[in-house]
Structure of beta-glucosidase:
Amino acid sequence: MDDLKPRQSLDEQVGDAALSSDLKDSEGYIAQVDTEHHGNLKLARDGHTVLVPQPSDDTRDPLNWSPVKKHVIRFIVSFAAFLPDYGSAVGAVTLNPQATPFTRFILLSCEVVIATATAAWSAAATTFESFMAARILNGFFSTVAQGGGLMFIFDMFFFHERARKIYIWAAFIILSPASMPPAYINSPYSAFQQRVMQDGTFLYWDFESQDPVYANAGSDAGIVHKLIFYPMSIHKAGVRLVDQWIDHPNVTAVLFAHLPGQDAGSSLAEIIYRDQSPSGRLPYTVAKNESDYGELLMPVTADNASNYYTSANFTEGVYIDYRRFDAFNITPRYEFGFGLSYTTFEYSGLHLALTSAGANAPVLPPPGPVTEGRQASLWDSIAVVSEDVENSGAVAASAIPQL
């Protein structure tokens, strides 16, 4: 059976208990002291909270400084924490111990000056090496306020006050990455809204009926039926199958915009309004069916024992992307390198010449240093291809020939 005896209240169990509501006006609650027996202990202004640590009688003791002075210094230390925190771990263990022989004030002052100078250096740097050197030094020296802020707080504030002061100081560190405004983002909606205001037309939109997007674009089919003669824009990183709706009469064009970044809206509007002619080319093949990609959907990785790990030797044949479609006579929806323009181009004078390195190049790359992007020999120039390209249409545009 459950215990049915009446339970004692908290006040009955612990005679000196206090409700948290009774302490709401106290910044910190440490102990209730009988004023008749507290001896020489110094108390807070409420008359019952013991000050920890006990301040001395010296007016130069940071614990005895005026509240204004304490909070000004705390603000300076917190604001200094806004500086970039790159390399903070190294700077903290290296520089903060120097506060003992040189005092905290001298340490903080010198490091803030150096951090400001290195920040100006990074802004004026003209080379990557110079910029990186400035950023490393800036992170190293700007860490004093982040790693040493607690030292100042412990010196100036009593134990019961420190929790709130530490939270305020830490808030400056947390908020520092978001203190500056982000880079502008020009969305498609805002870009088209500006254009219709200029030409006096109307913009219709629907943000309420967005559907999840999958590889076969099944959700787009429903959207296409609601469109009235309008181009489709696809923002996606990889291949996108479009055969479920590409032949619908409402679809007049398709833009594979991929991930265009902060100028997504303006770039899209300029193409739709024919201010710019598209010049992009597909870097992959768009198949009609997912099965057309075959083993490309499940690639085989190289084994660890290979001398060319993690490169593949293609023992099954080089059937990458369009090569598979050619080898198996598969007709794609859009071939590798496909791309339309508002104009036409004429190509002539194709010329190919092997370099000395290309004429004697082995099938597999020779052993050599491994740099960023695989073996260095993979970037050797083995041939030079040249061609004459002429814009034969009436619209200014750019062409990107592909091999």
Notes: Residues 345 and 391 are 5 Å apart (CA to CA). The first strand starts at residue 230 and ends at 234. The chain has 13 helices and six strands.
